[in-house]
Amino acid sequence: SALDLEVEFSKLRFYAKGPARELEALQRCGVALWGTITPPVSLTIQAKDRSAWHLPPNAATYAWAFPNLTAFESDRSLGSLCTSSPIAAFFVCGGYIYFDDAHRVVASRALAVGLGLSFGPRSPWSGAALSKAEGLKDRWRPVAMPAWRAGGAKLYTWIGPGERIIPDGAKDATPFPAGTFAFLFHEDLDETDSRDCCFSVQGFGAPFVSVGGGDQWVGGLLFPPVAPPPAAAKAKTCVVM
């Protein structure tokens, strides 16, 4: 069954409405059936890539959906949920929600194993002033995925393509021409860490894989390798609606 979502834009929150049986099973596992989203941005995917992702032609904007995880007995149980179904992956790993011009939900995608987005090389984060920027400082969320936590990452966020973030105390904006995941290795936005970094979308159709070599801190779904990955180390976006 398709995932049925409702979004409250005034609070940037999403709520799950169905399918009832799968949502009840997730609740028994401690999964909250709501979360927060980033501010929606215009959809920039080309027509051929929309077709590959099975996105409806009326999809106009999209947002990243942060999972709202509660307590789990172990990271292993969390990891098992990630691979149990696309709907479970959406509430555990996060995903994208797509809207039409009337702000109605028309599609959603979850992270899972296979082919999908590809990300560029790891880039250093620009420090506390950018972390505390207006429009970004309230958007950081605790890292929940076990592989990311194991590497020491504490907070992460998604910055949509085309967003221009003005660092705290600066006059000029930092542009993000491509969608970007940013990671902080501390919980205090006033702090900095040499490991703080970001990864920007590079294209579609290439595999999601874990970072290898000296960058092997995520060991998870999202980022391209610095060495050839094993054939099985891929990820994709799954249709959940």
Describe this structure in words.
It is a single chain. The chain has 241 residues and is of the alpha+beta class. It contains 6 helices and 16 strands. It has helices at 20-28, 47-52, 75-82, 86-93, 128-131, 146-150, and strands at residues 4-8, 13-18, 34-37, 41-42, 61-66, 95-99, 105-112, 115-119, 123-124, 141-142, 155-159, 163-165, 174-176, 180-184, 197-207, 236-239. The strands form 3 sheets. Strands 1, 2, 3, 4, 5, 6, 7 and 16 form an 8-stranded antiparallel β-sheet that branches. The longest helix is centred in the N-terminal third of the chain and has 9 residues, at 20-28. It is globular. The N and C termini lie close together (8 Å).
Task: Reconstruct the topology from this structure.
Elements: E1 4-8, E2 13-18, H1 20-28, E3 34-37, E4 41-42, H2 47-52, E5 61-66, H3 75-82, H4 86-93, E6 95-99, E7 105-112, E8 115-119, E9 123-124, H5 128-131, E10 141-142, H6 146-150, E11 155-159, E12 163-165, E13 174-176, E14 180-184, E15 197-207, E16 236-239
Antiparallel strand pairs: 1-2, 2-3, 3-5, 4-5, 5-6, 6-7, 7-16, 8-15, 9-15, 10-11, 11-14, 12-13, 14-15
Helix pairs in contact: 3-4
The number of distinct helices, counting runs of at least 4 residues, comes to: 6
N-end to C-end Cα span: 8 Å
What would you call the shape?
A: globular
- The pLDDT mean sits at 77
Please outline the major beta sheet: 8 strands, antiparallel
**SSE pattern, N- to C-terminal:** EEHEEHEHHEEEEHEHEEEEEE
Report the count of strand segments. Answer: 16
The secondary-structure class comes to: alpha+beta
Spans with pLDDT under 50 lasting ≥5 residues?
206-241
Task: Report the β-strand fraction as a percent range.
Answer: 25-35%
What percentage of residues falls in helices of 4 or more residues? Answer: 10-25%
Write down the Rg.
17 Å
